[in-house]
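Lab channel / #folding
Pinned by the channel admin:
"Please post every new chain as: sequence first, then the structure tokens as a reply. Keep commentary short and put observations after the output so the thread stays searchable."

First post following the new format, from NK:
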Amino acid sequence: MQAAALVDGRPAEVVVVGAGAAGLWAAEVAARAGARVLLLEKTARTGTKILASGGTRCNLTTTLEAGDAAALFGKAGERFLLPAFWNLPPEAVRARFHAWGVPTETAPLEKVFPASHNAKDVRDALERAARAAGAEIRLAAPLRGLERGEQGFRLHLADGARWTAPRVILAVGGQSYPKTGTTGDGYAWLRALRLPLVEPVPALVPLRSPAAWVRELTGIALPEVELRLCGPGGLTYERRRRPLLFTHQGLSGPGAMDLSLRVARAALAGPVEGWSLAVDFLPDLDREELRRRCIEAAGQAGNPRLDQLFGLDLPRRVEDLLVERCGLSGLPFRVQSLDRARRHAWVETLKGWPLPVDGTLGYDKAEVTAGGLALKAVDAQTLRVHGIPGLYVVGELLDLQGPIGGLNFQAAFATAELAGQDAARRPA
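Reply from TO:
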């Protein structure tokens, strides 16, 4: 038997599914605008993924301007997100949290954190604001199915309840960090509604390396390098100037994780072979300049060390590997030790040290999911799904993925803002 989803004994006007960043934000916006809002969460608490984000510090947005932030989602993502980012730019997100009692502070790489460095403060503020606006939150209430009805939607809950609702905002996330409850439930509902999906893959995820010598560098960080993602044959696909971290499984840090999407997509087709991250230790100097400095220094007194010549500060284990690769083992690490061939090898190594990769660490270690509902299926001004009146999709369930640095939280909040605003004003 079907019954209307209720809020304080009256039919809910908007049902939001998923009490993560996007869902809590959408619920607060719609309730504050006057709608009766019911927020359903499958787990026993709200915002579990928020609590784990940013190493439990929660990088909640970016210092970038709205247009610059949107541009980092690629051309299609930029076009789609610009209306949302103009409506709720990053500075407005910070202002909203300040108003909720969560001051923020900036950090390198355009990051913004709560001043407390405690993700719980972010989650608590979102939940508190949603409840204060009038949204009702029901925990441990997993949705098992979503169907179109005569006047809206039929909701099938795990406990056997069957509800109807005129408008539904789907904010259930993707598949990253499945232990937090994001297990990809929304994809099945979207497929059942015959909506177009881009195959989901883990994104912003550490990379695996098959090379033991790479994994032996565990714990070493390279803060000022440019990374090139190279496919079979050496073709360069993307570049990122971000820190790199070596781990016992391969490569992590913002640089490697930002470049992980193509590797994850390649893995859909089979074994990942012939891929690498090429490290440019001196991105501000081209090869000709490096060669010129080597030649000039070789003719001078003092015979400086090679790393001193370029202002490098290399960890000893990295230096040893570079020396070995360039055929300098057993020779003094000095400019005058370089003949023409070794000079060429040294310069080429500094400008493109290849680190082999053969896959990612998967959804368990991925910060977000790439893929999801195709952007062509959604109105960028309102987040309404085309052809299905009353249905909205926001956040990570959309085919959007930005780099590390609070961009994906910004997208979640901004898309939720538009959806909440529109759902509240549309007639039931």
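NK: Residues 169 and 202 are 23 Å apart (CA to CA).
TO: also worth noting, The first strand starts at residue 3 and ends at 4.
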